[in-house]
Structure prediction request, 473 residues.
Amino acid sequence: MSVAVISLILMTGSVKQTGLPLEDPLNWWIYMFETVTSEMLPGSFPATDAEELFTETISTDGLEAIGRYILSRSLPPGNLPGENSFKLAVQGTVAGEILYSEDAFETRCGMTGRIFADILPGLFMDERLSIWAGSDENPPDYFTPFHRGAEPGRHLYVDWGYIRWNHETISISFGRIPQKWGSGRFTQLLISDNSPPLDMLRVGFSLWNILEFTGFTSTLNSDSCTYLTAHRLDIKPLPNLRIGLSESIIFKASGLDFAYMNPVIPWYPVQWNERVDDNAFLAFDATWIPLNGVETYGELLIDDIQYENTHNRPNKLAWTAGISTFLPSMKLGTVAEYTRIDRYVYSQREPRNYYLHDGSIIGSGLGPDADRITLSIGTPALWPLLTRVTLDHTRHGEGTVQEGWPDSVQTGGRFPSGIVEHSTGAELHLSWYPADFLEAHGIVKNTWIRNQDHVSGENGSNLTSSLELIWTW
Prediction:
């Protein structure tokens, strides 16, 4: 696992930075850079430390202008150079959105306030709060997933807030930290940004640009003393190949469990032999760039595998496979991705061990008993206008996380299970960046649904469109 994660640097030298927020649509384009450069992204996001990642080869691939813009957006507020004196910077955004869906208009608005303090060499603090209101009780798009409050109306949330100390090889962070692991473009199976950010203690180190490690212990529910620990090792045996090995475990304890907090031992045998009914996961992911402009990637999640199956019970597996390309001559980027998640993945016998945080899946928001294929095509040819078209088809069975893991479950069932809901979507996404402080996003999407809500023969379609303006100060 790595705490030293990707930072986009399009020039020589080294600059401290914090990276793009995970919900920023520009993240789609960060992956496009990886397909046309000799450097590889680490397996965890967002960026935290400066690395020289993208070089002058970008200028020949039609990505230079957008690359430099992403760089400026990835820097801390005020573009602090990280000198040896205390520096403080404040940044904010104002967002307004109009949404049309199901013959009705909805309005959403919101503000964020961010403070960044460069305290000492290698030590900084980063915090952001958001407040928003929506006629449909939803925030504007591109806000960090939030902790859901019980009261309707205005909402005030801590999107993130942490302090971090970085050394040449070691990093220690404490606070509320958003992140996602793996190379999936549209979903991540073990750790994603589908749920609100976790409050954690996180450590990491990197060695020789070959090994990167991250480990954290976090609180899922302090009232019930439920914790999530996870660790990750990224290995780069070749310049064009990255392999990620990850493990996470949900457990309940009256205090911190130092066996699970130990970042360097495998937790599965600890859980199997020394604990009872904790929920453990293993994950493997990889990225391979066989040639310039082409990238393949995949992820395998093992929730449960029946290697001593005496009751004919099914395995609980999930996997993603994808390919991404960028064609410089046409200034065209493409992604094709398929994800399948078996029934009962993210579930467990004990409801306290469901793989949820604040009611949302910590892994893929697609959920169990489902699969999806996604095709996306984008171009920066009209920069500062970015254009992207996405098509997807999803099959979702009747299984949910909340159904648990019944003792009566056996293999041989159909996938997806029960009455399958089929959903096909087509989306046009336009993003316009006329100035550093202003951006606009327009989305038009139509979704066709068959067997809606798992009711046989219940079909429908839904056309939605939205326009959002974001001003940064």
